[in-house]
């Protein structure tokens, strides 16, 4: 505990790690420990040293361990180092080039509309008891959303860099970041702290802060376009927003309350019902084949248990985004250039396009052990569960994209006429 800190309790996520480490340190001779430390320091800094060190490191870690056929270019190494060391500073320049107040306002409005649609789903979910529903609505009302990038990024104004002392420069940044992190001890939780730089193409949920984050790098075409019709934005980035919100109310996220504390939202009965309904998704996705996009050969099957959390978020996000779009059109009918029918089709087309990707066999094999299924499976699985998609494109009942059995969690079960998973 740092000097002057009043904290007397430290949370250890993996206590056995420290017990194991202590045991090892007692058994390893001091001279061996010195050698290990020397190796660790050298290995950590090797990529930033002269060519012989950098090449030796790359030859082993990139080409042997990670099976990268060609070592990364100097430009790739430099870019990666800038992003990992002073990413927020780089992000501030990125936002000046691409981010506008209009973009921020549009995305903020979109998030609020998707949140409102999710609230509608919570209110109409029949398997909640009153207490669980109230807890969920309170959590949603206190959900923080961050878009674009940090308002006060770390720009390292007190640091001076020597162009001939690269390692020393990195150490200065590391020391600055460590001091910044330690300064957060004994302070209230700052929900405005970003974990990734603005230029990162990503969105994520921070359960312990009841926050969702949408980076500036994500908020660009084809996912978000300020000039596009609302149907396109609801179908693409609207789904991402709904996905991240849903994570806060899945089997893991529901363990955290409106303040991000470990305090389950659901009653035991609601949790049991959730688990029963989740079995439908496990079965659906677990039956999906993963085939080579090059040869068509079977590479394996998805693990429905492993991908469950992402599958639930995909389905919840899509349903919420569609509901939000419907509510938007109802309230602002003149705001879209399309007819109702065309607008709905555009929503689904943009949703589908947001998952367009070309995968190598190696990448697909990696995904077999990843909680995130390949894009094609995420797309197909979610629309198979949507009656609204089937109606928009007149999909015949029991066709591949409109199976009779559909999996539903949130909101009114509009699929009840064909849902065998009750």
TrEMBL record:
Coiled-coil ranges from the UniProt annotation: none
Molecular function GO terms recorded: metal ion binding; metalloendopeptidase activity
Cofactor(s) needed by this chain: Zn(2+)
GO cellular component: plasma membrane
Matching Pfam families: Peptidase_M13, Peptidase_M13_N
Database matches in PROSITE patterns: NEPRILYSIN
Domain Peptidase M13 C-terminal: 208-407
CDD domains hit by this protein: M13 (cd08662)
Protein name (database record): Peptidase M13 C-terminal domain-containing protein
Entries under InterPro entries matching the protein: MetalloPept_cat_dom_sf, Peptidase_M13, Peptidase_M13_C, Peptidase_M13_dom_2, Peptidase_M13_N
